[in-house]
Amino acid sequence: MVPSPFPLHRNCAACYRPPMRTLRLASFGVQGSIGDGLTPDIVIDFAAAFGTFLERAPVLVGRDTRQSSRMLHSAVLSGLMSTGCNVIDLGVCPTPMLQFCVPEHGAAGAISISGGHSPMGINAIQLIGGRGAYIEPVVGETVLDIYHARDFSYAPWNQIGKVSRLQDFSRTYFDRLAALLDVDAIRKAAFTVVIDPVNGAGSPYIRPFAECLGLRLIPVNDVASGHVARDPEPRPRNARQVAALMQHIPADIGMISSSDMGRLSVVSEIGETASEEYTLPIIANHVLAKRTGVVVTNCCTTRTVDEVAKRHRATVVKARVGQAFISSALADENGVLGGEGNGSVALPEFNRGFDAFLMMGLILEAMAVRRATASALIADLPRYHIVKQQVAGETHRGYRALERMAESTEWREDGTLSNLDGLRVDWPDGWLHLRASQTAPIVRIISEAETIPVAEARALTAARLLEHLL
Amino acid sequence: MKDYLKVGISGVRGIAGETFTPQLASAFARAFGSYGGRGSVLVGRDTRASGEMFEHAVIAGLQSTGCQPILAGIVPTPTLLFLTRQLAARGGIAITASHNPAPWNALKFIDDTGLFLSLARAGEFYDVYHQGEFKLVPENEIPGATVLADPMAGHIATILNYVDTDAIRRAHVRVAVDCCNGVGALHTRPFLEKLGCEVFTCGDRITGDFERDPEPAPENLATLSALVRDHRCAIGFAQDPDGDRLALVNEDGVPIGEDLTVAFAVRQVLDHHVRGPVVVHLSTSRCVRAVAEARGVAVHLSRIGEINVTEKILAIGAAVGGEGNGGIIVPAIHPCRDSFAGMAIVLELLATTKKSVSALRAETPSYFMVKDKLTIRSEAAVGILRAIRRRYEKEELTLIDGVHVDFGDRWLHVRMSNTEPVLRLTAEAPDEARARALVNDVRAEIAKM
């Protein structure tokens, strides 16, 4: 948790760590803690529910390197096979690469097994639809219904699914990525790059990536061992190791990802650990200059995205929080680019999934084409200041408290209110977002403004009122 | 019965995708991991279409309890039992429904001594399953699965070390084998070639299905008989899908009956290896007893079920034993039914006696066995068994497993099956008429009720 600049006693973010829920079933898949809520039985059931939904069509399966991912992988295979789905197994595979392969191989869908950005001990299986995006939330509801009714359509003994192993899938992926990027420019720039894939699914693939773009690679935490070497959320406090390394070994840029290669944050050549909020605007600033259109983001991402879009005459569409909602809105709006403030970007023209290899490629392309350093790319963005806070409270109370806060106007003065996902207030110089967490009994507060004191003051006001209401 | 699931001393058995699902397999594996405690667990399977699916479910279940799965892949059940002991594993899970038809599959549980769970241990284990509170280990204690590189090596070496390999090799036996599209399709030819045999095979493709009824009973061995005749083989071997049972076909292509496998093995072990008591189960042919008694050793009878025979063998220190269905057990190799040990010992018998299969058959006293069964509810069976017991109370009765009646040169055994909802009626006499008369007598008794 981020150390709070203003302690709030029992809700002090620095000293309070809320217990994670042990199991969460949602339309996107299942997330839970290992040794507790997320058992192989539940995962077999969930895979069998997805297999039942897919009616014996072929399914891709990939996993990250975590120790429990091997177990969940076996559980997923048996569940899918039991419903007559043939499985094309990719083994250790970053989630975006798996998403890329779904349309490439004409699969009906995929299951990704990855702890993603969650700490060690939490793992998840994600359902991916036929076009490589997270399955649409409404479709996921159908799978959940099958799961709850245990209405599995098991294949008869002689039609049980078979497993085949897909080799070399990364070659097509990198070929296509190279075709998308200005590889000549990147190669000519001969960048030295530090990449830290947190010993996750990206580990075996950062070398081919570096070769593809002619990078001099300095790998960190690139052993596919399952050992989660640091908090896998790509954000400044988790980029310290990379930043420290770059003090001694000069590099043009450092990049850290989550276990599944779905999120990325950047360390500049001068060792500045940029907020994960800047990954999307850096890329938007580059991509929209070439081709403008609709950008999709969620309702609690930095306003920098809006400013960058305005700069390039692009439209911003706000969706609910989560990759599934962003992907869905990207498809609805025929968007050029999408992403979230947690360090994720998707470019539907290339891949419907949030893709850290794509993010790295686009950032390097921006540096090469614009002849700009990483710090210059960051400096080119309008800067706001974000404060993230949390208040402890059971989720059901959280929702009620948010309703009450929506009714009251005194704390938000002239701000305009929206309730697409949680509660968002927009002022001319900033915004504040309140949302009951889906994974822990807390309400998250994100406040952004032109100055830190304003952002903090607004967060404090909201937190005090919430504390009172919870 | 279509929707049938059987949980008992023979493991957990059902029809894949109907009564037996990966969820169930995973839950039993979790229970097994919780029951046995942390350690390595051997996992192997036969060639059934559902095998890989159940294997994955078992792997996941074991890992969740902190048990490391050691994957032997497609191996004979006797090899898996052997490996469990050899590798000093915590236990093993064999994914095989043995001689049941292809739609069936089962989990069979092996303890840390390399034997199937005994009745008492099976009881404890099922209690753990039913209580449903399975051990779960945290992320950093979840083990990976290990794949065994050459799972057959130790088992095969032990067999080759036991028999007179040189004598067998010198004999250059022409052998036909029906592998039943089972584990033998992978392992039998290399094994027999090590023994210097010229090998002809059928049922040697792995398809997930079986070309013949998987019981190696005489009526199912037409293809093997033709193979023996076409290639002028000295002997034909018929295995079941998981390679624990063995039936023999003579040089004219005639099946000689599964009981003769045991009779031959008993003869060879007693004559050539070690003299000592013999254990067979209650429904085994009297020809085995004749062979043993001719050599001056006692025959002990056990309950039906491999583990019961094994336990008796170990308890009395028997030299050899087996089940009349073609499951020979040589404790010096490993105390379980083993078609590979069976093939080696029968080949050794041919090589050392220099006699043909039909000549050896002729030297073994002949009996006629009638096997009948009645589909029945278990509560009805209880009454029937009591009635039969009263009917024959003046005869020599053995009551350890159903009712076994000994009439001197004939016997009758009536019992409830461990694997199916049927009452098995078995009788044996020197000729068919007297054997049938015994079964008809029982059927008449049942009809009266």
Q: What do you see in this structure?
A:
The complex is a heterodimer of chains A (470) and B (449). With 470 residues, chain A is α/β, with parallel strands linked by helices. Chain A has 15 helices and 20 strands. In chain A, the strands form four sheets. A seven-stranded mixed sheet of chain A has the order 1-2-6-5-3-4-7, sandwiched between helices. Residues 1-15 of chain A have low confidence and may be disordered. By secondary structure, chain B is of the alpha/beta class. Chain B folds into three domains: 5-150, Alpha-D-Glucose-1,6-Bisphosphate, Chain A, domain 3 (3-Layer(aba) Sandwich); 168-362, Alpha-D-Glucose-1,6-Bisphosphate, Chain A, domain 3 (3-Layer(aba) Sandwich); 368-448, 2-Layer Sandwich (TATA-Binding Protein), CATH 3.30.310. Helices cover 39% and strands 23% of the residues of chain B. Chain B has 15 helices and 21 strands. Chain B has helices at residues 22-36, 51-64, 77-86, 119-131, 153-162, 165-171, 184-194, 222-230, 258-272, 286-294, 306-316, 339-353, 357-362, 378-391, 432-448, and strands at residues 5-8, 11-15, 40-45, 68-74, 91-95, 104-110, 146-147, 174-178, 198-202, 235-239, 246-249, 278-281, 299-302, 320-323, 327-330, 334-337, 368-375, 396-398, 403-406, 411-416, 422-429. The interface between A and B is large, with 36 and 42 residues.
Please report the distance between the alpha carbons of the first and last residues of chain B: 24 Å
Residue-averaged pLDDT of chain B, rounded? 95
CATH topology-level fold name of the largest domain in chain B: Alpha-D-Glucose-1,6-Bisphosphate, Chain A, domain 3
Q: What's the helix count of chain A?
A: 15
Largest sheet of chain B: 7 strands, mixed
What Rg of chain B, in angstroms, do the CA atoms define?
21 Å
CATH-derived topology of the largest domain in chain A: Alpha-D-Glucose-1,6-Bisphosphate, Chain A, domain 3
Helical stretch count of chain B?
15
User: Uncertain segments of chain A of ≥5 residues (pLDDT<50)?
Assistant: 1-15
